[in-house]
Amino acid sequence: MEDLFSDLTLDELVYGVFDPKRDCSICEVIKREKDLVNTLEDIATASRDYRGCGACNNLQSGVQKYLDQCAQKDQPDVDWKTIKFHMVYPEHQGRSRYMLPVLEILQIAKLNQFDPQQVNSHQSPDSTQRLWFRRNVPTSLELSALVAQISSWTSMCKDSHPICQNEDSPRLPKRVLDIGADDIDGIRLSQPQNISAPYICLSYCWGIAAGTITTTQENVDDHLRHIPWNNLPILFQDAIRICRALKIRYLWIDALCIIQNSTADWEIESARMASIYSQSFLTIAASSCPNPKTGLFGDRWTNFESRVPRAPKPRFPIGTITTESDGYFVHVRPQLHLAHERFQDSASASEHKIDAPLLTRAWVLQERLLPSRIIHIHSEELVWECKSGLRCECGVLDELHLSKNRVPRTHSELWLKSSLADAELSQDLNKLSGVWTKLVAEFSALHITYDSDRLPALSGLAAQLDGPVLGKYFAGVWTQCIAPCLLWEIVNIPRKFPKRPLYQPNAPSWSWASVPLSKSQIISYKSVDFFRDINSEFKVINLEGRTLGNNPYGWVQDASLEVQGLCVRTEIHHKDYRGIHLWIPSHPSFVSFTMMRSDRSTRKTGFLLLYVGLRYCLVLSKLPGPGRQYRREGFTELPNNHLNSWVDKMELKKIVIV
């Protein structure tokens, strides 16, 4: 659609189309400040006091119409603190500053100068002097609209993103669903032999597994012949409808394409996740569905904080209300914010258990990051995620911020999928190791039901990064960047540890995977950001152990790491709420660290500091027996003002960490 405003500056647009009163305080804010945040009462006052400002009168009418509709539908009592114009510049995008309930105004213009249908068209200005409007988002998601949006975004991605390109017809996975054309009874499990064709993957929450159809050793032959349509949960049926509408014949769903009660098949196929997801034509993420019994289509909603403390957040339909008055029209809707917050802030996953339960799951991280393209069906709107950028239906997440020739990067610099693709392309050790530590940190913040799944759930990403640059993979650590990978810590360690094992027996103590995590704990490599110089005396002499099972990226046994480095024996100076404080007797300073495990012994001696580089040392404890075996307990930072005096006390040793 033609850009009706392509030649208008901000002043011309506001005064020529919006036609506000020049002395109206509300209109002045719109013109000068780009965003209007105000109360409905303020706007009503403006429409009375400034000689009947038509723009403010219509704005008040549109907002009131939405509130009246909410009241008619018995919507919960929400205190609408502000209303906000979303007539903003590209650089003004980002997470909303207004966390209280907000109405957003999509458009306001003269009827004879602006096509109301233009609200469905996103304006992409090349100049900061032009306004950027939000798109309309339908209240209900339907198959035809979803397929049209997928087709549009896919075409854009294929035409504009070289980094997102993959084979048009890759070799099919070991098993796929052959869904046929349109016969609901023509669905079967297929084991293609060297067949190449496009296929789609489904990413979803299992929920409570009972009652969900799966492929087992007992029914695999039946599934190879035929899978009855009515045996499939609605989520699987909806995914099949989407595939057929897109004219894609093959669909991969883990519950049906992996033999669920075969440990060997599960281990082999979980190790192939990298190729399965990365080579897919598209991955459909059922982000809003808590289980397969929930469908993808239907009404969409957002929520805000309730006026009642600790009460459930009330839901509101996202549909747009349109009103016309005095030659103007205005589109009003509640502010869309849930999807934007989740995709712009990885740390917010736990806050989105209701609107995006899928995105709280650890298993799903690799399902998000491996595909070239993924469509998220979120409770509010559709979100497109590819290796080059983010897009959403309303336009907030659109990739203006990714263009080097337009606006400086904002979210993409911290966005893991883009960083992963860039690191893979560059094959730079520093970039790859940095991406890996970010992967581990984000992964650890997500929920996993079984602690034994932690390494298998990351094996697809490990396989994707496997290569000579990072070296050998071992229990979540890469040999070519082992020094910084040793400097992990647990954030939010409780004062009283839960009654769980001291460490995972199938991971060495120097691996982040060795420590069971409680709900609020995450792995952090924040100190690695300052790590620039490995000490010349620190060397890896030998790393050995054996992988368990058929997944080369899974758990290990009898693992040991032999290193050489500068060491000094220390003992406990004192303990307090900040942690354990170590020192060398008669030394003027001490160092502090937090015990990673629950066996906080009362012993005062037997600790060893291993100098890794800059000011960082591993804290090790001597294991019983005559050998040189130690266990990692944490890491610490030497005081900068006494760094040399600490290093002078150290001597070169060879030790084994298990």
UniProtKB/TrEMBL annotation:
InterPro entries: HET. Pfam families: HET. It comes from the Eukaryota. Residues 199-367 form the Heterokaryon incompatibility domain. This is Heterokaryon incompatibility protein-domain-containing protein. It comes from Dendryphion nanum. The lineage of its organism: Eukaryota, Fungi, Dikarya, Ascomycota, Pezizomycotina.
